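Listing S7. Sequence submitted for prediction.
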Amino acid sequence: MTLKRSAAITGIGEMRPSRSPDGKSTLGIWTEVAREAILDAGLTTPEIDGLLVAPPITEQAAMWPSILGEYLNIHPGYGNVVDLGGASACGMVWRAAAAIQSGLCRAVLCVTGEASDVETFYAPRAPRARRPVQQLPYREFEVPYGPMGVNSGYALIAMRHMHEHGTTGRQLAKIAVDQRTNACANPDALYYGKQITVDDVLASPLVVDPLHLLEIVRPCTGGAAIVVVAPDLAGAAPRAPVWLLGAAEASRGIMLSQFDTITTSPIAICAPRALEMAGVAHGDIDLISVYDCYTITVLITLEDAGFCPKGKGGPFVEEHDLTYAGDLPLNTHGGQLSFGQPGLAGGMSHVTEAVRQLQGRAGKRQVRDCELAFVNGNGGIMSEQVSLVLGT
């Protein structure tokens, strides 16, 4: 079975990231970006008959599709929650296409977003009422050894990659610098107009060796949505449809201690499958839009997706210009490192940016003759992966 050209993205909506919620709720943000995406697709609310949401992190509730559907006055025949961490947005795209192909629906609204206050994000949590602790494997076999959440996990991957392949801190820092250059061409980016250098990155505080502060994503408030439609609706859309040409997914669990290798990810499985479904080669790709919670995430993704040989990611990013005007445009909106990471909407920003570029409406940062984009979502610590090929 193939999903090639089974559906297209015709509308996008995105809230400019901000450092604090400014009174907004997650549900309010979802509503704002959903409305924008539906209007952008040239549709009306009653025409939406599918609804996919990614669960918010800071607000707890069940039955989110029903909650949002009621709020928007949408009564979908297909609704679901996609929980793949940072890979959720990319996972939504192919799930929407599969639902459309199966005849369950014709127009699917996919929504992400979170109201996150960075001033309290890192503050100590107040003790919770006593309740049974979930006996998850990582609590038993990894937490007792003192990992500092995802920071230490990605730092461990970076340190191991340096040990195995000679990757340097300056090579990793260049990724952050090139993406900041992209952000400086994006007025909506959190770090718009704040250029940095490799020396700036390496001089920023060392959070978990070898990762510095400017190599780590910045949590913020924001949201994003897309509309995925059937081919006949795509043909009637006001803007050029962006077709799903290839998609694949792979997962390996969440515990680093159980991996055969921590420097190779499931992207090595799903990226080749997505490219094969699309019938395209790496050299055909005009834009790379991949999850970038840390600089090492980008490096591992480029290697495992096959854009360069394994272990050669350091020299590869050193030799190529990753800016919107360069020979290998990557994360042209600034990536989550410089655009911002509003919860799971951070992953959706890679999809919305790919759509903007493919539709030729990225403004100053527009990539010339952009027709094919490789998009990748990453969940956990290089655990859950979804690769997409999008094109005009």
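Caption to Listing S7: primary sequence and predicted structure tokens for the chain studied. The chain has 14 helices and eleven strands. The mean pLDDT is 93.
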